[in-house]
Design goal:
It comes from Roseovarius pacificus. It holds the Pfam family 3HCDH. By secondary structure, the protein is α/β, with parallel strands linked by helices. It is built from 30 helices and 18 strands. Helix 7 packs across helix 14 (about 275-290), helix 13 runs antiparallel to helix 14 and helix 15 packs across helix 27 (about 630-640).
């Protein structure tokens, strides 16, 4: 068997002939029977009905051949499998969904029941259905850098191909439940520590690890002591109560039923794998039919649509960032992490040192290993002498929101930038039309508006103006996708798209504070709607100085302005109390925390007054062409502000609710013209 195993390499897999009856698998017959997953016409493996149907046939062949070991691998460089094929189940309902799930379970059960050792060798992303395929094998060998997880909870679902009962049997059930409930991945070393992986090796040692698995010398986890203790219903009930309490804080049952369905499933059936399997199928099918899941699946497609807007090559290898403040540092660090060569300048040396420390922290938070972190930091170059200006393919200006300062920098760049280089501004409040005349080349100037913190906020607004070249906008969108962010193509407008829609939410909360509402009641009302944080907490997060600038720009440029800025807000900013970054703003972060739990019985009138102005502004942006279509508006708000994904976006919510124009009229009668329904409501449908 040694000679056969020595031949099992990815390069050989790509040369091996594909079995004539399969499109998605490459098969190697022999003493070591190897199945290479290689989904046709795509660079990423997904677990589809056709993939499982072909696997079923191949498993029958393997059972007949009775090899010493069956190995399942991926021929894709990027990873083992990215999950189930969402296109294949998104529109399934009822019995049709149950039947398809049962068929998938039967294939993985067949794999689990084979009378010889089975080994999944996993690398890169091993998620969802791909993880469940690996769990059906006797052993899992991970290659350095692998990450395994169940992201189904982000679609309003839980694992549906056996993950619930196989993972809770394999490792500590509480750890297994946490992985499924939070949707995060277990990276290589953590996966090995938990017992998901029986071995974690570099590629060159895979053959030896397979040999150890085939010979029975590879250690295999069994969940440990706690797994045995939690086989009783009473013990599971205690753990389940704690899980429900934690889940309710993060994702209330009223909005997100999937975590609670998963907890119920484990509590009721965790002691019997057969029962849990049948309950998993029924629960998955029921969740699939829920409004929350359908909206979250819609959000998945919205993400894909944004990514599609950034297809193509950016031609950007070297990025130069001007300004090493919080935003400039994050932009520079993130770009370097994603493979770009980055220089960053500032008038002071201290912020440049802070940039390197910030970059190291982000690398650690994103689970980069030592070599990856070293390489990222090597690509990030402090540039106090501004040498990068002359060599960069893209210059990103990220200095404070002062027109005269930006224009001065643009004048300096006129003779410094190389031909063909793009200049982008990260402004959040200034109109590009007011800046463009000062730029070296208006055709190669645009907005590239990141959101804070860049390492956690996936959206970037790619902002056009009348003189911007299409090639410039296309390259910036491709650059955004290339650094693993989502480009939203928007037009120059006061506040662009996100801030135009968000500002009424923030400023209305300020006015309501003046009227006697408490900070906590306003924030908790917004949390009860599903917002990730209340408007006052968000204002502190953004920075009260930034809020003031955005409100000023909107007052000067809109037909119907946002609420008037209270004098006390200007006073706070003048005193340096600008929010979380200063330690004090609307909340004093040295002595108090903003509320994190929603109001139990929030006043719908309060919610409407906060939320509906955002819907109204979204309609305005659609009518005025700030975004090309409704889906871009909804996607940008979800990924740029955390608008509740389960509600599908402000325009989707408006279509479902239907009564918003009438409610806005009532608010207008009571509070003034800022609530007047936009003319675009008549065309929303």
């Amino acid at each position: 068997m040694t000679d056969i195993l020595d031949q099992i390499t990815p390069d050989d897999a790509t040369e091996a002939p594909k079995a004539p009856e399969t499109r998605h698998w490459r098969r190697e017959d022999g003493e070591a029977h190897t199945l290479w997953l290689d989904c046709a016409e795509t660079t990423t493996n997904v677990i589809s009905e056709e993939v499982l149907r072909e696997l079923d046939t191949l498993l029958d062949d393997a059972a007949h051949a009775r090899p010493e070991v069956l190995v399942i691998r991926s021929a894709k460089q990027g990873g083992f499998a990215a999950g189930a094929d969402i296109d294949g189940f998104a529109n399934l309902r009822g019995e049709e969904a149950v039947t398809l799930l049962q068929q998938g379970h039967a294939v993985l059960d067949k794999l689990a029941a084979l009378p010889f050792p089975t080994v999944a060798v996993v690398h890169g992303a091993t998620l969802g259905g791909g993880f469940e395929l690996a769990l059906a094998c006797d052993h899992r060998i991970g290659i350095d850098g692998v990450k395994l997880g169940f992201p189904e909870i982000n679609l309003g679902l839980h694992p549906g191909l056996g993950g619930t009962f196989r993972l809770t049997r394999l490792i500590d059930p509480v750890e297994a439940m946490q992985l499924m409930l939070n949707g995060r991945s277990a990276h290589d070393r953590k996966a090995k520590k938990l017992g998901i992986l029986d071995a974690l090796v570099p590629e060159r040692h895979v053959v030896a690890a397979i040999r150890a698995a085939a010979g029975g010398s590879l250690e295999h986890g069994n969940g440990g002591f706690r797994a045995s203790a939690l086989r009783t219903r009473a013990a599971r009930s205690l753990a389940a109560t704690r899980m429900r309490s934690e889940s309710e804080k993060k994702a209330p049952r009223a909005h997100y039923p999937a975590p609670f369905a998963l907890i119920d499933l484990w509590e009721d059936h965790g002691g019997d794998a057969t029962e849990m399997q049948q309950a998993e199928i029924a629960s998955f099918a029921e969740l699939l039919d829920s409004t929350t899941t359908q909206n979250l699946i819609r959000v998945f497609y919205l993400r894909q649509r944004l990514k599609a807007a950034g297809k193509g090559k950016d031609g950007i290898a070297h990025v130069h960032v001007i300004g090493a403040g919080a935003m400039g540092s994050e932009i520079a660090a993130w770009s370097a992490m994603q493979g770009k060569r980055v220089t960053i300048e500032d008038t002071e040396l201290e912020p440049l040192g802070d940039t390197i420390r910030r970059a190291a922290d982000i690398c650690n938070a994103k689970h980069l290993n030592g070599i990856e972190t070293r390489d990222a930091l090597d690509r990030l170059i402090p540039d106090p002498d501004r040498l990068g200006r002359a060599h960069a393919d893209l210059v990103i200006e990220a200095v404070p929101e002062k027109s005269d300062l930006k224009e001065k920098i643009y004048a300096e760049l006129t003779d410094a930038m190389k031909p063909g280089a793009i200049l982008a501004t990260n402004t959040s409040s200034l109109r590009l039309s007011d800046l463009v005349d000062a730029t070296p080349d208006p055709a190669r100037f645009a907005g590239l508006h990141f959101f804070n913190p860049v390492s956690r906020m996936p959206l970037v607004e790619v902002v056009s103006h009348d003189m911007a070249a299409q090639d410039t906008l296309d390259r910036l969108a491709a650059f955004t996708t290339g650094i693993d962010r989502l480009p939203a193509r928007v037009a120059d407008y006061p506040g662009f798209l996100i801030n135009r829609i968000l500002a009424p939410y923030l400023m209305e909360a300020m006015v309501m504070l003046n009227e006697g509402h408490t900070r906590e009641s306003l924030d908790r009302a917004a949390l009860s709607f599903g917002m990730p944080m209340g408007p006052l907490t968000l204002a502190d997060q953004v920075g009260l100085d930034i809020c003031l600038e955005v409100a000023r720009s909107l007052r000067d440029g809109l037909d119907v302005p946002v609420a008037e800025t209270p004098d006390w807000l200007r006073d706070k900013v003048n005193e340096g109390h600008t929010g979380r970054k200063a330690g004090k703003g609307l909340y004093d972060y040295n002595s108090e925390d903003p509320p994190r739990t929603p109001e139990d019985d929030a006043d719908q009138a309060v919610i409407d007054r906060l939320i509906l102005p955002m819907c109204n502004a979204a309609v305005e942006c659609l009518r005025k062409g700030v975004a090309p279509e409704a889906d871009t508006v909804d996607a940008a708000m979800i990924f740029g502000t955390g608008w509740p994904p389960f509600r599908g976006g402000p325009l989707h919510y408006a279509r479902i609710r239907r009564d918003i124009p009438d409610t806005l009229h009532r608010l207008e009668d009571r509070h003034g013209p800022r609530f007047a329904p936009d003319p675009g409501w008549a065309d929303l449908g």
